[in-house]
Specification:
It contains 5 helices and 5 strands. It is of the alpha/beta class. It has a 5-stranded parallel β-sheet with strand order 3-2-1-4-5.
């Protein structure tokens, strides 16, 4: 029984989102952190910088996600996420610290950290929100790739700098 992702709309970037979700699922399926299994639990998912919720929507077709919280600054993206049945959390009006500590099972931050002035601060907040055995999936552009030419990218990460940042903020890469 091979699981397939569902997309709310068929566009080139929704196909990329679907492929990314499959990749995240496959990585998580191979990961056994002290017996913690994402596929066997009813999960609360935080998609930090999740824009329109398409990644969370696709992941919901692969994992047993009870609820997804899309945290973003863009009101248009949040409206789409809300229309898809996600909880919209407007970061321009609210702080993640308003969410209950240790309430999140799984968090994603896909191509978000490179846009932040202080990604360490945000990761520390996410760490507080995650349950003790919670998992975070982080994806950033390669520091040696084309991301260097994007003026919206405030920080570039190598695999070593990302590992160091995750360790400093209480995660085990």
């Amino acid at each position: 029984d091979k699981k397939e992702t569902k997309n709310p709309i068929s566009l080139p970037w929704s196909t990329i989102t679907s492929l990314r979700s499959k990749h995240i699922f496959n990585l998580l399926s191979k990961t056994n952190l002290e017996g913690y299994s994402l596929s066997r639990r009813s999960l609360i998912h935080l998609d930090y910088g999740g824009y329109n919720g398409f990644t969370a929507y696709a992941l919901k077709s692969l994992l047993n996600i009870k609820s997804s919280i899309i945290a973003d600054l863009d009101p248009n993206g949040l409206r789409i996420a809300k229309a898809l049945g996600m909880k919209a959390f407007d970061l321009s009006k609210n702080s993640l610290l308003e969410l209950k500590k240790e309430s999140i099972d799984f968090s994603t931050a896909v191509h978000v950290l490179e846009h932040l002035e202080n990604p360490r601060k945000e990761l520390l907040i996410i760490r507080k929100l995650l349950k003790n055995n919670g998992i975070i999936y982080v994806e950033v552009p390669n520091a040696f790739g084309t991301s260097l030419y994007d003026p919206a990218h405030l920080i570039n990460f190598s695999i070593n700098s990302m590992k160091k940042l995750l360790i400093e903020t209480g995660f085990r890469p």
